[in-house]
Amino acid sequence: MRRRDARAFDRPLLIELRTTAQGGTGQTNTVAWEQFARTRGRLVPLRASERFAADQFNAKVTVRYELAAEVDGLQHDMRVTDDQTGTVYNITGIEQSADRGRGQMVMCFEHAD
User: Fold this and answer.
1) Over the stretch 56-94, which tens digit does the pLDDT of each residue have?
2) Would you kindly state where each structural domain of the chain is located, as residue ranges?
């Protein structure tokens, strides 16, 4: 079993859960984001791309966070805020570590308002 270096998990992370409400037309809207968990992780940049369409630049950044500890209840409709940079990422995938109880890997892309 490979030993994990706690110093490698150098980024404080905030994981947030979406709070929703149903509007008058029956549509579900995001009302707010509330704190779900705080943990530490390691950032692994994977891909960045830019494209120009309709007189606008669109950029997409894809990253993976390796979490120091497993976060129970983590879901795909949550988001991660990297407290070190202030960047908000939408979670697109969650993978359990091969060593049970040794953290998770979370795939994300940069959130755009």
Assistant:
1) 666 678 999 999 989 999 999 999 999 999 999 999 999
2) 9-110
Q: Are 78 and 36 in contact (CB under 8 A)?
A: yes
**CATH code of the domain made up of 9-110:** 2.40.10.270
- Please tell me the distance from the alpha carbon of residue 63 to that of residue 92, in angstroms, as a whole number: 10
**CB within 8 Å of 103: residues ≥ 6 apart:** 4, 66, 67, 68, 69, 70, 97
SS3 labels along 1-68: CCCCCHHHCCEEEEEEEEEEEECCCCCEEEEEEEEEEEEEEEEEEEEEEEEEECCEEEEEEEEEEEEC
Given a cut of 90, whether residue 40 has pLDDT beyond it is yes
Q: What confidence tier does 27 reach under pLDDT thresholds 50, 70, 90?
A: confident
